[in-house]
Write a structure and sequence with these properties.
The structure holds two protein chains of two kinds.
Chain A lengths: L7 H22 L7 H18 L12 H26 L4 H20 L20 H24 L1 H11 L1 H5 L5 H27 L9 H14 L5 H16 L6 H16 L7 H9 L2 H11 L3
Helix pairs in contact in A: 1-5, 1-8, 1-9, 1-10, 2-3, 2-4, 2-8, 3-8, 5-6, 5-8, 6-8, 9-10
Chain B lengths: L5 E10 L2 E11 L4 E5 L6 H8 L7 E6 L2 E2 L5 H7 L1 E3 L12 H8 L8 H6 L2 H20 L15 H14 L4 E5 L7 H17 L3 E5 L3 H7 L2 E6 L2 E6 L1 H6 L1 H8 L4
Parallel strand pairs in B: 3-8, 3-9, 6-7, 7-8
Antiparallel strand pairs in B: 1-2, 1-4, 4-5, 9-10
Helix pairs in contact in B: 3-5, 3-6, 5-6
The chains are: A mainly alpha, B alpha/beta.
Chain lengths: 308, 256
């Protein structure tokens, strides 16, 4: 394989894909099919593009854009996306299943069309010359990797504690979950807000990484692509969407040598993946297989073996 | 006079043109095992749904320790101390038995979120306590050895036991059991009767139970109410209910 196939730029894109996959995964973990991720991604990106190109104070004296300003943009994006998601979530999370998906697609479209028609937000042309905090793509890769590690760690903690269990319970049976005293409305809202915050943070990184930003970056296609990450990777644990995001972002690039055929191969992978592995690459049975081989679980199984 | 733990006053619900329950008056006293009998479609499960906030009532009120709880949602009612099982079994199918009970322990599992996030010593200790409590509850229902098994793979009777363990994990004051003996053989039904008595005594419970198995109900319950076509047709001790002509007519069937 050619060394250029897996360069730092592609790696950054893959990591961004993994993060967007996690953003779709969070509501899905409590059974909420939300496709709002690209909308909040676009909000984060637009915010970063505006702040870094219009606010000269953020730039500092160096030619490279200060990393502190990127972090400030991320904080603002998180706050903005989180607040918006809390407000919107209160309304749309009353919907279930495919109706929630449709409402969130509408949200993404509303954001896209408003940005497109708002000169101040870049309009149809977009915003160019977004300053670079890193001289090399490798800087973005490391920075994005750090964010991915933090978000994965958060998800891991979440899945192991009370909130994560409550989310899984809602996914399995919302009514039964409510009867265990779980505040289902609030739990779903927390997941939706976390999802929006992650998407907003990724948007900020993307804006700098891509150097320009326009309304087309958060559209319906992106909704479906990010959903594919989760469907392909699996939605049982955070590792699924991460793997899905990495693989499906890399695939079209890795297949570039075979020319236009790659689109067909990509399509086939998306089609055949769910057919062969309906629960994704990281499926429940795979998790059980792994768990049974962990030393701790082995012990408990042996002790109970005598009783069986 | 003592306030009943749970009281329904003129409780009713209509689904379109169907009056599923009409003017149900019941008083459940603390510590009682109270049985609900009635033919299929009599409205027993519907009554459970009204009490547990799953279905909103059309008329009447539900009083809990003397205060109205009408209009509260299922999760608020659960937090008051009313737990239930479901006739058609609603377990969390993707989880193992222990996790099902851990979800039942939701209310007791609260720890400060920074501790939960960082997995501090406090969080780990708390987690161990909860796991031990979950195991205890599973053992109580004799399914401790199935803790790691997926809930969806259990036998019917074991699923019923798991659901009871999960409901008991809520630490309720009132437990609503919807046909707990369905899918159990006669021997298991006898064991279940003893078990229900035992948990009532151990956990200071009041139990409201729906069951079709009449001998089990007559032997277990302190008092019984019989529903038919959405109305209460009898109320009283097992002996009185058994000899009530309306009950014999409607439920036990046949003239005597």
């Amino acid at each position: 394989m050619d060394a250029t196939l897996l360069d730092a730029s592609l790696l950054t894109q893959m990591l961004i894909g993994a993060l967007l996959g996690l953003s779709v995964y969070l509501p899905l973990r409590c059974g909420q099919l939300s496709l709002a991720t690209p909308g909040f991604y676009a909000i984060g990106g637009t915010l970063a593009a505006l702040l870094s190109t219009r606010m000269s104070g953020l730039g500092g004296s160096d030619p490279t854009y200060p990393i502190g300003s990127v972090l400030l943009e991320m904080a603002l994006a998180a706050l903005l996306c989180g607040t918006l998601a809390a407000g919107i979530g209160k309304l749309v999370l009353r919907l279930r299943g495919v109706y929630l998906a449709i409402a969130t697609i509408a949200l993404v479209e509303i954001l896209r069309v408003s940005t497109l028609n708002q000169e101040a937000l870049g309009g149809a042309v977009g915003i160019f010359g977004i300053p670079q905090p890193f001289d090399e793509p490798a800087g973005y890769a490391v920075f994005t990797l750090l964010l991915l590690v933090v978000v994965c760690w958060l998800c891991e903690r979440l899945e192991r504690n009370r909130l994560g269990r409550a989310m899984a319970a809602i996914r399995d049976d919302e009514l039964a979950a409510a009867c265990q005293g779980i505040n289902t409305e609030r739990t779903k809202l927390v997941a939706f807000v976390l999802s929006a915050v992650v998407a907003g943070l990724v948007g900020v990184i993307s804006a700098h990484f891509l150097n320009s930003w326009n309304a087309r970056l958060g559209n319906f296609d992106a909704s479906i692509t990010t959903l594919a990450f989760v469907v392909f990777g699996g939605s049982r644990t955070w590792a699924g969407p991460v793997l899905g995001g990495l693989v499906l972002t890399a695939l079209p690039e890795v297949l570039r040598p075979i020319g236009d055929l790659r689109l067909i191969v990509f399509g086939l992978v998306i089609l055949i993946g769910p057919l062969l592995l309906p629960q994704g690459l990281i499926s429940p049975s795979l998790l059980m297989w792994v768990k049974a081989r962990l030393p701790r679980s082995n012990r408990t199984m042996q002790t109970h073996g005598g009783q069986l | 006079m003592n306030t009943p733990l749970l009281e329904t006053r003129r409780l009713g619900v209509r689904f379109g043109g169907l009056q599923a329950l009409e003017a149900i008056d019941l008083q459940i006293n603390s510590g009682e095992i109270f049985g609900l009998l009635g033919p299929n479609g009599a409205g027993k499960t519907t009554l459970f749904n009204l009490i547990s906030g799953v279905t909103p009532a059309s008329d009447g009120t539900v009083l809990w320790r003397g205060g109205s709880i009408s209009g509260l949602d299922a999760s608020s009612i659960s937090r008051l101390g009313i737990a239930r099982t479901f006739q058609n079994l609603r377990l969390f199918a993707s989880m193992n038995c222990r996790d099902n009970v851990l979800v039942g322990l939701h209310r007791q599992a609260r720890i400060p979120w920074p501790a939960a996030l960082l997995g501090t010593g406090l969080a780990r200790r708390r987690q161990h306590e909860l796991q031990a409590r979950a195991q205890e509850l599973l053992e109580l229902f004799e399914i401790g050895h199935l803790a790691e098994q997926n809930a969806a793979g259990l036998s019917y009777g074991d699923r019923r036991r798991l659901e009871m363990a999960r409901a008991l994990a809520n630490e309720p004051a009132l437990l609503l059991l919807d046909e707990p003996a369905a899918g159990m053989n006669p021997c298991e039904k006898d064991q279940l009767r003893e078990l229900i008595r035992r948990i009532r005594d151990q956990c200071n419970l009041t139990i409201l139970i729906i069951e079709h198995h009449v001998p089990l109900m007559l032997g277990l319950c302190d008092r019984l109410a019989v529903l038919n076509f959405g109305r209460r047709i009898a109320l009283g001790s097992p002996e009185a209910v058994r000899q009530n002509p309306a009950v014999i007519e409607a439920y036990l069937g046949g003239a005597s």
